[in-house]
């Protein structure tokens, strides 16, 4: 069965990326297309999305976007193709909103008009379906940035010819960021103040877009089963646990996949030497080269621990900072790559200057170094306070770099703890989010490395054999889409709708890459 799916999000690899959300939006559509679906993606055209490099072409006409009290706003639409597929991706061209260097903030301060920027994205995504004559069976929104989409589908667009029949899915990649704004944003949504209630869109006297999305979406999911359970508790719900619990019957978890074309030690182009589970020789070369490039002593006989992360509290960097002085008393080496909160830049930079023999720190975003850390290290540390899915632990396993993780969300779901007696597992876990637990578990891993090399070799083989594929995740998303469509239409109507699919509609979808034809 061929479904029409619209995916709307604020970032996608390779066009614009702040975090793992972009990896997901960059990958999932390709795998859905491979399963035979007509998938389209829409996102803003930020400055950094280069029109020439990606051969974007402008569609004729402009999109008219009704922005409530602001009135109609307009934007151009560019069309490109998701690399490695035929999936069309549409970019909204709005100089005022998206012609900025960074996606969400400047100097760690969210842009003041983020409400308008992302309500615009949500509305324009739905208007685009009309412009393209593309009636989606389901619209798939991601995080607070497009959480207004399910709200608008149930209100403003509920009688719309192209959208009335469409179901919606909201994927929550992160509960902490909710899109919380001054209540006046209700007038921009333009759906009426009766939706500004504690049940729906109101939270602490503000408009909370994520809350609205959770209330309105036909289906909800998060990026691991563990996180789907966690966000129903006060510890992980960031105040929205109540509304999530109310919708728990529609909520599930699907672990993200890994792009194994990009993350594969056998053919990784960023590495000085390649290696595989059968021939691990190249991993030693990677370790030496990494130590040399970071100015660490080139020693084979010391365990090297890596970390690549946004430097924010979510990732447990405060706990790492507390544990660091004690950790550096051990005979280990540690490398940290990341950017984020200013205190962390100063603190970790300072420690690196003090202990150049044991600790290296690179502030910034560096994909090549991220690959070399994955390949060259013995262990990979993720002490997250919460982690909806987490990608680096999965990359690490493919490179035989054993994850040391706090057992939360996707980290708990994807890593199996080491069992020394049975030689099972593929990493090391701790539960308490504190410096003591972190220190003890790194100590355990390092002790194993020094005293049980066979145990480590067995763990490496286990880790390298493990796969988190997008094929698998896409199949689960397909099932979720069908469930959503069934709930929206009812079983009987779903059968009718699918039977009524005219050849014309199939033909139209085949011709999708011809672009938008203005109507007579
Ligand atoms: P989150 O989305 O919460 O940041 P994920 O683990 O899902 O966490 O995804 C993070 C992604 O960003 C990974 O692909 C990781 O390699 C990458 N990344 C994060 N920080 C850096 C950095 N400083 N340099 C290079 N890549 C980074
Ligand atoms: C969020 C989460 C991260 C997850 C990513 C992609 O940024 O913090 O855990 O892997 O989204 O789903």
What is the gist of this entry?
This protein is α/β, with parallel strands linked by helices and 520 residues long.
What does this structure look like?
- Helix 1 packs across helix 18 (470-489) and helix 11 (317-327) packs across helix 16 (435-451).
- This protein has two domains: 4-257 and 470-511, Rossmann fold; 281-465, Rossmann fold (3-Layer(aba) Sandwich).
- The longest helix is centred in the C-terminal third of the chain and has 20 residues, at 470-489.
- It has 20 helices and 21 strands.
- The radius of gyration is 24 Å and the shape is globular.
- It is of the alpha/beta class and 520 residues long.
- Strands 1, 2, 3, 4, 5, 6, 9, 10, 14 and 15 form a ten-stranded mixed β-sheet that branches. It has a six-stranded parallel β-sheet with strand order 18-17-16-19-20-21, sandwiched between helices.
- It is 39% helix and 18% strand.
- The model is unreliable at 515-520 (pLDDT under 50).
- Bound molecules: adenosine-5'-diphosphate (ADP) and alpha-D-glucopyranose (GLC).
- The site of adenosine-5'-diphosphate has 17 residues, from helix 1, strand 16, strand 17 and helix 13.
- Alpha-D-glucopyranose binds at residues 19-21, 24, 173-174, 223, 256, 387-391, 410.
